[in-house]
Amino acid sequence: MEKITVKEILDATKGKLLEGSKSAFFSNICTDTRNIKNGDLFIALQGKNFDGHDFINEAVKSGVAGIIVQSTGYRVQREKKIAIIKVKNTLRALGDIGNFYRKKFKIKTIAITGSNGKTTTKEMLSNILEQKYSVLKNKGNFNNQIGIPFTLFQLSKKYRFAVLELGTNYPGEIKRLSEIVMPDFGIFTNVGLSHTKGLGDLSGVAKEKISLFLGLNSGGTAVYNSDDKKINEFLKKNLSRLKKNKLKMLTYSIVNKGGFFASDIRNLKEKGISFVLNKEKKRITVHLALPGIHNVYNALAAASCASIAARMSFVEIKKGLEKTIASPMRSEIIKIGKSILINDAYNANPNSLEKALLMMKNWDSENKSSFKKILVLGDMLELGKFGKKSHKDAGLACNKCGIDILATYGSLAELAAKEFKKNGGKTFIFEDKDKLKKFVERALKGKNLILVKGSRSMKMEETIKGI
Predict the structure, then answer these.
(1) What is the pLDDT of residue 327?
(2) By C-alpha distance, which of 100, 195, 197, 209 is closest to 155?
(3) How far apart, in whole angstroms, are the C-alpha atoms of residue 310 and residue 131?
């Protein structure tokens, strides 16, 4: 990052300088003492299971030139003078500095939220834009109040766009992230049961996600899936607030045929899916290397935004979309012998599982599948009061989508297996992940279509590691 002075940090955070000079500066910010470099600014974050204030002396010994604290109940032993800044809340201060740094650059920012498809949409959109521009995007799970500021710290004058996915698991987080990012464009992919432990219910999820549009810069553009009933419902409720901010609205769909829309969708099995991209009288055929109709929606979101944000042509949009490959553990297709393994183990919620099951159901164009279909399912977590019911519903969905075998790991996933078995399905319930891995290894020796899915903390990718 470009250097930032103590005075600029004080202006950004409204903090108080306890020691040091306002003219001192830093070229790097750190919150983890394991990654500190000489001259860094160390921010002492506090979390449920850690307190950065406990590592202040370690940070000083590592050569930091400054620290930001929210508590003065510590002792600093040092040989050289460093800047010490006190703020009310160090996490908020990190975001404030990220916002200050973002405003240093003339850049268009695009924020993406929704229950599913954020990462894939981000990758698709970046691939389209990168044909003409330098694009900054967040990596991995850098989509929260820590990851977003650190992504913004990578900005430099070479970048023309920042494409950022925003995650949330409690009310107000998207609003705060929008304050930090100040997006010019916002993409809202869909609403589904995700993080309902913190967000309450489907309405709570929609209310939290829609705050992205309410946080767009004046005159910004809101891009959304007009086939999603919950999005439409909440947009109508907030229409007056959106109009006040002079937002432009851009839709994409498959069913409603508004804005950008897809037609002539063809399942290409392990080769992905194809569709015709339409906008008014323009049409072009796109072949995605990713399976499932849900990825057509992701492609439509990326195409819509690229068209309005950078005036990318249909040919450029097609090229960028077709360049996109599966991110690790997200609809990743692996052919092993006569079997096909779909590694979708990065995360899971009822909405994403439903889409994955539909993908398996529609894998073959014939009525009778040539593959035996096997779902390897781990617990879907953070669903609060919807946890048990969602897993029972998942079992029923497996019956309806023609799953032949359901193998589960975890107490909640076991509920899905019991429901599936009750309705005639064949199940294997595992309490040992190594035994589940051996089951998968045996299954891969036949002609099977195997989907692996579960919440991030279940680490379901371990069931296929090394295969």
Answers:
(1) 86
(2) 100
(3) 11
Q: Which CATH class is domain 105-323?
A: alpha beta
Beta-carbon contacts of residue 45 (< 8 Å; ≥ 6 apart): 31, 52, 90, 91, 94, 146
3-class secondary-structure state, position 325: coil
Say which CATH superfamily domain 332-463 falls into.
Mur ligase, C-terminal domain (3.90.190.20)
Closest CA to 364 of 451, 446, 268: 268
pLDDT at 365: 59
pLDDT of residue 109: 98
φ, ψ at 268 (rounded to 5°): -105, 20
- Multiple choice CATH, 4-89, 3.40.50.150, 3.40.50.300, 3.40.1390.10, 3.40.50.1010: 3.40.1390.10
Quickly tell me which residue has 């967000």 as its tokens. Answer: 199
Strand 25-26 relative to strand 29-30: parallel, antiparallel, unpaired? unpaired
Q: If you ran DSSP here, which 8-state letter would residue 400 be given?
A: H
Residue 134: alpha-carbon gap to chain centroid = 21
Where are the domains positioned within the chain? 4-89, 105-323, 332-463
Residue 19, classified by CB atoms within 10 Å of its CB into exposed (0-12), middle (13-18) or buried (19+), is: middle
CA distance 192 to 188: 12
**Residue 358 burial (CB count, 10 A):** 16
Q: Which parts of the chain sit beneath pLDDT 70? A: 74-80, 193-198, 200, 365-369
Report d(CA 88, CA 95) in Å as an integer: 13
